[in-house]
Every structure is written in structure tokens, then in C-alpha cells.
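ugh ok fine here u go
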Amino acid sequence: MFENNVKKLREKKGYSQKELADLVGISQSAIAQFELGSTLPNIKTAVRLAEILGTTCEKLVKEFL
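structure:
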């Protein structure tokens, strides 16, 4: 769920993984790992991701897209 939501919202906003990573302040490989579902962000990063992607942390982890 989380991995699909991050990818779909990122693509909807027109961001590359690198662009999103730069906005969040993390590496592009971290975004790739989130989208692959191999790791999850810490809460601070999740909040920043949600803000940039125009959603909430709760919605990022739910199957809503």
C-alpha cells in the first residue's frame, strides 16, 4: 500500500524520484527503496513526504488510491 501510494502520488505530481528526494532532503535511493517496499521512512520523513505529495501520513499507509 505505502509503496504504491508514494509512487502514484509522485508520478501524479510529475516528480522524478530524484526531484522528490531533493524536496524531502533524502537520497534518491531511499525513495526507490520506499517504492519497492523494502523499507519504510521514519516518521519525520513520512510527514515531509505527505506534505510534499499533498496528503497525510494516514492516507499514505492506507489503500486509498
